[in-house]
Design a protein that fits this description.
The chain has 9 helices and 12 strands. It is α/β, with parallel strands linked by helices and 265 residues long. Strands 4-1-5-12-6 form a 5-stranded mixed β-sheet. It has a 5-stranded mixed β-sheet with strand order 9-8-10-7-11, sandwiched between helices. A two-stranded antiparallel sheet has the order 2-3.
Length: 265
């Protein structure tokens, strides 16, 4: 493994107190579409830092599993990778449809609602939802029913928020007991500070927080969700290229290497 890979693995042991700084990207004009005048077609990617180990900032640099995986996938295609733009998670689909970016790589779950607005690559990761609580607290829920009448947090626009809105708000908690955050670092900080009692988030991200922060996973809520790279509707060229590149990195061992680096699996 390269020195770079080792430093990134070491980073997972120090995911800690600093909040993530977000640089909301400006417009990219033609969204890096390239291809005009016979030039090489390009891909500009968008993501939302603050979701370790998939995407986060390390010393001002954007790093993570999604970052490494997408760049490896594009390397196997005829497209030239133009770089990354950073947004809040719920701004990614508008940025894609406004041609500011060409691909979303942000641990985005493939859902029917999203599939009405954008297209997806083949799935590249499977994850359920975890409910995390303070590690030194006495609240130990074992099911969604145990979250009744408790202040709960999730990140805006995520599957975790969908679970809260669909399964908790109105039946188990009031609308005022749900706290929405721009990123999960802020949600976990609020949990640690005692302002909320639980956070609903993707299982691999919950495992990273539990390994490096004073929080623990209380239980897992199975959703069968799968992550995919997002592209504009009708952008079949990039969609096909991503699928072919993904298949290649899965077959040549790159995907397994990245999984071991970022998840230790």
């Amino acid at each position: 493994m390269s020195d770079e890979g080792l430093s990134r693995r070491q980073y997972l042991t120090t995911v800690g107190g600093s909040a993530v700084a977000f640089g909301v990207a400006g417009c990219m004009g033609d969204g890096g579409s390239g291809g005009s005048g016979g030039s090489e077609p390009t891909i500009t990617a968008g993501t939302a830092p603050g979701f370790p180990p998939f995407e986060m900032k390390e010393g001002g640099d954007l790093v993570g599993f999604d970052v490494d995986l997408l760049e490896a996938v594009v390397e196997e295609t005829d497209y030239s990778f133009e770089g990354w733009e950073e947004f809040e998670f719920d701004s990614l689909i508008p940025a894609l449809n406004n041609d500011n970016i060409d691909v979303i790589a942000a641990a985005m779950t493939i859902t029917d609602d999203r599939d009405e607005n954008i297209d997806f690559s083949d799935p590249y990761y499977s994850a359920d939802q975890s409910i995390i609580v303070r590690g030194d607290g006495d609240f130990s829920p074992g099911s969604l029913d145990d979250l009744s009448d408790r202040p709960i947090g999730a990140q805006k626009g995520t599957t975790g928020e969908s679970v809260v809105n669909e399964e908790l708000v109105g039946s188990r908690i009031t609308e005022g007991q749900y706290n929405a955050y721009d990123n999960y670092v802020l949600a976990v900080q609020d949990l640690e500070n005692g302002n909320i009692d639980a956070v609903v988030l993707d299982q691999p991200v919950a495992e990273t927080f539990a390994a490096n922060r004073p929080v623990s996973i209380a239980f897992v809520y199975e959703t069968g969700e799968r992550y995919g790279f997002g592209v504009r509707e009708g952008d079949s060229d990039r969609q096909s290229a991503l699928n072919e590149g993904l298949s290649t990195v899965q077959e040549n061992g790159t995907y397994e290497e990245l999984t071991q680096t970022w998840f230790g699996e």
